[in-house]
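worker-03 picked up job from queue 'complexes'. Input manifest follows; four sequence lines, order preserved.
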Amino acid sequence: MTVNAVADAADQRREEMLLAAAQLITERGFSDTRIADVAGRVGASPALVIYYFGTKDRLLTEALRYSEKSFYAAADEMLERTPSARDRLETLVRMTCVPHGDADLPAAWGLWFELWATAFRVEEIGRDRIELDQRWRDVIARVVRDGQAAGELGKVDAEDFAVTFSALLDGLSIQVALRDPVVDPDRAFAIAMRFAATSLGTDWRPRRRPVSVIARQRLAGSR
Amino acid sequence: MTVNAVADAADQRREEMLLAAAQLITERGFSDTRIADVAGRVGASPALVIYYFGTKDRLLTEALRYSEKSFYAAADEMLERTPSARDRLETLVRMTCVPHGDADLPAAWGLWFELWATAFRVEEIGRDRIELDQRWRDVIARVVRDGQAAGELGKVDAEDFAVTFSALLDGLSIQVALRDPVVDPDRAFAIAMRFAATSLGTDWRPRRRPVSVIARQRLAGSR
DNA sequence: CGCCTTTGACTGACTGTTCAGTCTAAGGAG
DNA sequence: CTCCTTAGACTGAACAGTCAGTCAAAGGCG
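worker-03 finished. Artifact:
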């Protein structure tokens, strides 16, 4: 047990570092993130970070993978708690298109850009992204199929819908992340839901929901 | 005249550097692009690059702007040569979703990722991107309105369509750029066109067109 | 003691930027 | 036409700062 206690402490340290690295990647970009920054944020020496990860590159790529996986894990978990297909769709859209103040949810906005840019150039990250994106489409497709089985959604090819819908969500999230005044979070949300409703043969009308306070703050905080 | 000749030569030099910088940004990423690389590619000394742009940052941001504008200029020009609304839509989709071998067309794939990542963190680039993206949506909206005026397209809000369609195109182009096996260029093209046709009340059936040889090479050349 | 964790000090490589000065060509004066 | 001046383009060498990674030693826990 004591051995495990030590190991657990070390694991926790590692995870702290990964989280800090992910945050820093979001803030400063992948290759402008310094080991010293990560070390400073977790209150350790740069040498210790190297001790744990061996090299800067491994730290950063692991950090990217870590937050990617956390995002999809969070998605899975949220969906399990949500019964109706329509609410599930809303959850998915909100996860991608609406700013969430949860700072520790690693899917913070800028990270996707860094992930794409890195995936484009680093084979290993690229493979990972393809795999996880497939998982994301599977999640969408499963929501659709479940909804169809429950008679809630009309008849469409779930796979096809997932491909198109995930692309649309990506595109909308770009605009939202880059604070495009024409595509604010509310509008992105409405566009995504309208598309889903039309494609899936259900109805969805925008109910004027106030954006959460946190989301407002996040948006106002743009310099 | 001789004075202008010199000035033109200098302008050309500048443009060479911008082009080289844009290519390097695509290959290595924004902040992994070295002045020495740019200098080497145009056969000059690093000092000369500084001589022209004053600072590395100015060089890189100008390079981003330069290729962004070139892309939209190319779009405008291509559309002017295309009469029918349907062909125009195809052109737009092909420009964003289908790999083009034109190496000097600066909208090479990876550049968008760098642009987004930089726009997310650098105020100045962010403003620029918002403005140019609006112009892009305007281009789409105009195509739609022209097509409606010609009776070719059904009645929809052109602005709304432009927002949704441009987001979809962005999302699809991400998958294509990252070589997702599920969303190859042909499928992305088909998805985009099907969406456009459905939304705009026209018909479009995928005709099995072979991808150009250049596009094939480009794709096969992925390491 | 023995093992794992942690650190401060250090270094070697890299790189943006400066600077002093060279080379070329243009322009004007005689 | 020839000589001289001037300006702009251009460079090599040097500088200064940054930063990933090394290492020997210390700390602490069992």
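worker-03 released lock.
Residues 137 and 162 of chain A are 5 Å apart (CA to CA).
Residues 2-3, 6, 34-36, 46-47, 50, 54-56 of chain A lie near DNA strand D (CB under 10 Å from a C1').
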